[in-house]
Amino acid sequence: MKPIKKLAMLDLNGTVIKSRRDDGFVTTRDEWTWEDGAPEALQLLANNGWMMAVVTNQPAEHRFPNVTHQRMEYLMGYVRGAMEEVAQSSIPFFVCYHDVKHSCSCRKPHPGALRRAFNYFCPGGGLTTERDEWDVWMVGDKLSDIEAGESFGANVCGVNSTPLASLGGFQYRYRPTLLDAVKDILLCDRSPNEDLH
Predict the structure, then answer these.
(1) Rg of the Cα trace of the chain?
(2) Less CB within 10 Å around the terminal CB: N or C of the chain?
């Protein structure tokens, strides 16, 4: 039997980092800080053989006239560097810069960016055909993260917000922080989605 390959796909804002702004957006390198326990969570994943990818919606350039696409690309590169330094591991970013009004398949809750992330590690593969070889999770703080993970076929876990099960119409794991979620994932390797809160 082949060894299981393990991939954690992580939302960014509200999951790994938090905004210093009242509106929750992050548009400069000075406007964010780590969510509680996030650095330790990244280290735990890396130290236990998990590959990681960030899958994030970042529409700020369409919301604020002074925010450019280049500025957001620079910011994503900066945050990626900080995450990789903490984890001592490569963490590719898959970013949708579109806004809600744009018709795109990469903006969560659509699973397009999750497919891109998975194909980065498994070129040409699909989670359905590769199910026996992969343990894949999507972790995020919004219903759109949970829905994207469900649509893609990943295990899902909500974090850092009021449990959203009543809004989504289905059950899923919920943990208060990314660190709690990672500890749970490491303990419950390959177990089915279920409501544990």
Answers:
(1) 16
(2) N
Closest CA to 193 of 180, 174, 167: 174
C-alpha torsion sign, points 98, 164, 82, 93: negative
DSSP for the chain? -PPPEEEEEE--BTTTEEESSTT----STTSEEEPTTHHHHHHHHHHTT-EEEEEEE--HHHH-TT--HHHHHHHHHHHHHHHHHHHTS---EEEE---TTS--SSSTTSSHHHHHHHHHHSTT--TTTTGGGEEEEEEESSHHHHHHHHHHT-EEEEESSS--HHHHTS--EEESSHHHHHHHHHHTTTPPP----
Tokens 């699909």 correspond to 126
In this structure, what token pair is assigned to residue 87? 């984890």
Residues 131 and 11: their CA atoms lie apart, in Å, by: 22
Per-residue pLDDT tens digits for 88-138? 999 999 999 999 888 899 999 999 999 999 999 988 766 665 666 899 999
- Structural domains in the chain, CATH included, are 5-187 (3.40.50.1000)
